[in-house]
Amino acid sequence: MPMVCLSDFEAYAKKHLPKTTWDFFAAGADECCTRDDNLLAYKRIHFRPRMLRGMSVIDTRTTLLGTEISFPVGIAPTGFHRLAWPDGEKSTARAAEAMKTCYITSTYSTCTVEEIAAAAPNGFRWFQLYIHRNRALSEGLVRRVEAAGFQGLVLTADLPYTGKRRDDIRNSFQLPPHMTVKNFEGVFEIDALIEIVDAVQERAEVYLDGGIRTGSDVLKALALGAKCVFLGRPALWGLTYKGEEGLREVLQILHDEFRLSMALAGCHNISGIDRNLVQFSKL
Fold first, then answer.
1. Are the CB atoms for 43 and 195 separated by under 8 Å?
2. Are 220 and 35 in contact (CB under 8 A)?
3. How much is the pTM?
């Protein structure tokens, strides 16, 4: 049966992954309110489509800090990709390179930054960094990332403490013995979008991740001021399905849905997407 939408990949991953791995990928912290609200937020936004426009030519390309990508969807930093597919982050990097978009590698990847760079030598890559209390450790990792050709750093600023992930505690989740956080190997033994865009006032690009499941979700995020969105869990579902090929399929489906949403909304290109395109439900 063909995979038609991202929820098909989610169902496949839930069926085929071990329960402890699925729970790790799927769960949030505590009651998972933020995770669930991220999904519901897009359902409260409706379009004001523009009619009677010739839509034979649609351009989905945009730029991230001056680098062109094929459409405004990248891959967000998530850890432990080898739990989903044997090649792990190497497959993720190859899929992003093939789709001409940005991949943000997690600090907690199960392949080294050097392996990831070698897997997709022409890829557009940023690196998500947790600042460790051992600053020398963080500095050493940043130097490795730079030497491997990563083009930018994404700093995580909202994690003074880790959340209480209830399912992981119940499952006593831990990586299998053959798998490690490779970048530290040998070292250790949404509704806020509008407010942020308004506060930034175009002095910086604003990106969003969390809850993106359809091409119309992407269009809504861009209409509210995001420059690009990034996929988290759907990337892992694609890897679980067929590795690089599965993730490419996830990205292609999202690209096609986004292009269709642009056409139905009357947007010829990214510059034609603005806040006048959407309205919020009064419910």
1. no
2. no
3. 0.89
